[in-house]
Amino acid sequence: MQTRTLGDMQVGAIGLGLMTFDQSGSQPRQQLLDTVTAALDAGVTLFDTADAYGPGEEKGEGAQGENERLIASILDELGVRDRVLLATKGGHVRTEGGGWDTDSSADHLRAAVDASLGRLGVEQLALWQHHRPDPDVPYDEVIATLKEIADSGKVARVGLSNANPEQIRAAHAVLGESLVSVQNQFSPAFRSSRPEIDVCEELGLAFLPWSPLGGLGDAKALADKYPAFAEVADAHGVSAQQVALAWELAQSPVVIPIPGAKRPQSVTDSAAAADLELTAEELARLDG
Ligand SMILES: NC(=O)c1ccc[n+]([C@@H]2O[C@H](COP(=O)([O-])OP(=O)(O)OC[C@H]3O[C@@H](n4cnc5c(N)ncnc54)[C@H](OP(=O)(O)O)[C@@H]3O)[C@@H](O)[C@H]2O)c1
User: Fold this and answer.
1) Do β-strands 179-185 and 158-161 pair in parallel, antiparallel, or remain unpaired?
2) 216 C-alpha to center of ligand 1: Å?
3) pLDDT per residue over 17-26, tens digit each?
4) Which atom of ligand 1 is nearest to the CA of 132?
């Protein structure tokens, strides 16, 4: 698989989103082990989790950290920690009843980093991302906390998520080379992040499209909803999902999509997008 730059690292151009990895429902652990193995076999090296990811629709705060614990245990069982750049996030909290809230107070973000270090069992987080702006905390204050966290040495690289161009520029001005990435929504269904992609390209930051296939509810129906993607897919004999990811990669050399998958077939298919070349004509059609 071709690689792309994330700060001082090279990672596979397609990553793996872990948000839906859990053992609570219909996913036997072996399936998750097989999915991680398939990802690594295909050249995927960037794995994305968050402290707020967990199965706990009904478990509220109890869900906090479950996904981190699960992926750490899976990587250890497979003995593949050193082959993966495991990215996590802080700044979201789970509430009773399956809800999500934000907390970007300095105390919470500091504690979130410490808790992720403990759950992942590492001395330094490879990439720690601020999950989402908190309406109750001015972004400049968040940036100051991120700078303190970067300077603490507890995180090797800092990322933003759900940030607008102004916030990205402000963070870059303070964090400098510690800031390596921005993770925002981008897909055939959600194309309004182009300004953020442009800023990332200008500043040399990686741009990680989240829900790059349209999210859990829509990913499987991509071909039905976007006929141009289905037609280009037919011409290449591949899936419309693979075309969507190849189209995203073609937006800019800084783009590294992180499609979610809990089945090996999904990640193997998505990873092949890194080697799918679309013509200028096809790209123009998909842009349309
Ligand atoms: N920063 C944020 O605020 C934020 C918000 C949302 C998500 N995220 C990140 O983005 C990642 C991905 O987002 P997402 O899971 O919401 O949406 P997504 O990647 O757009 O869609 C995931 C769905 O696509 C299916 N899929 C994956 N590859 C496929 C393929 N090649 N062909 C057919 N179906 C395929 C998966 O199926 P199977 O599961 O059955 O394999 C899953 O149902 C998350 O895991 C998380 O890391 C971040």
Assistant:
1) parallel
2) 6
3) 999 888 666 6
4) 3
Which token pair is 184? 């925002």
In a mutational test of the pocket of ligand 1, which residue from 100, 183, 210, 263 has the highest number of ligand atoms less than 8 Å from its CB? 210
Closest ligand 1 atom number to CA of residue 267 = 28
- CATH assignment of the domain containing 110: 3.20.20.100
pLDDT in tens, 43-55: 999 999 999 998 7
Q: Is 260 in the pocket of ligand 1 (CB under 6 A)?
A: yes
Q: What residue's CA is closest to ligand 1, atom 45?
A: 17
Q: What average pLDDT does the segment 73-99 reach? A: 93
Q: Is 53 a catalytic residue?
A: yes
DSSP state of 191: -
Number of domains in the chain: 1
Confidence at residue 62, expressed as pLDDT on a 0 to 100 scale: 67
* CA-nearest residue, atom 41 of ligand 1: 261
Mean pLDDT taken over the chain:
95
Give the model's pLDDT for residue 95.
Answer: 84
76-108: b or e for each residue (b if 16 or more CB lie within 10 Å)?
Answer: eeeeeeeebbbbbbbbbbbeeeeeeebbbbeeb
143: containing domain? 3-287
Query: 39: number of CA atoms within 13 Å, CB side?
Result: 33
State the pLDDT at residue 20.
87
